[in-house]
TrEMBL record:
Transmembrane segments: none annotated. Keywords: Cell outer membrane, Membrane, Signal. Belongs to the nucleoside-specific channel-forming outer membrane porin (Tsx) (TC 1.B.10) family. Pfam families: Channel_Tsx. This is Outer membrane protein OmpK. Residues 1-20 form the signal peptide.
Amino acid sequence: MRKSLLTIGLLAATSAPVMAADYTDGDIHKNDYKWMQFNLMGAFDEKPGNSSHDYLEMEFGGRSGIFDLYGYVDVFNLLSNPSSDKADASSKIFMKFAPRMSLDALTKKDLSFGPVQELYVASEITWDGATQKVDAFAVNQQKIGLGSDVMVPWLGKIGLNLYGTYDSNLKDWNGYQVSTNWFKPFYFFENGSFVSYQGYIDYQFGMKEEYSSASNGGAMFNGIYWHSDRYAVGYGLKLYKDVYGIKDSDAFESSGVSHYVAVTYKF
C-alpha cells in the first residue's frame, strides 16, 4: 500500500482517537507506505560559520513491516556558482539515514503505554564524504538507541529517539543525542491543500572535552509549509546553540539563527 505525504498529514491531523500500533494479529505490513520528494533549497547564514548556499535535497521515508525509515541526501551548490560558500568546500554532499526497527511488530505484541504508541530500536547514520585530514568538521557518525512514537497535545504523533553516538572519524563514542520530529497540518483549503507546521530538534549532550569545545548543543528547525498532493513551498527558521559541540565564538559562530526556503516536487 502506498500513501502520499498529503494523505499521511491528513490522517495525522484528523484521526481521533489515535490508536497505538497493534500487530498482535500478525499482519506487520498493514501500515506500510512510502514517499519521496525533491526539495530545491536555499540556506542563509547556516551554522556553524554563517554559510549561505543552494542545494538539492532528495528526501524519502516510509514503513515496510518491522522497519521504519527516514532519510535524505543533500547535494550542495547545485548551480555550480563560483561565489557560493560551498564552491570550494571539501564536502559536496551530506546524507542522513535514520532507520528504526519496531519492537511491537518484531514481537507482534502491543508495547504501548500512556502516550507512547510504539517502541523501536532506533539508529541514525550521518556522513558528508570528507575526512578530518581535509576538514576539521567532517561528519561520519553512527547512532544507536531507543526510539518511540509519542502522542502529544496539538502536534499529535511525534517521533522521539535517544541515541548513543559513535564518531567514526574519532574511532570513539562521544556523547548522546535526543531527537524529535513532527508534522502538523493546521490550516486546510477547499481544494485539499493545507499549511503545516513541521520540524525537528536534535540535541547532543555528554560530549567529551577532548573532542568537543562544548559538551552540549543542538538545533531546532521550525518550518511553515504549504502542501498539495504534488507540490510544497515553505520557509524554515532554524535555531542553534553550540551546534555539533562547537563552542560559539565571534570568530566562528555556532549559535544563532538561520533561514531556509524550499520548493518541493513529490513523487
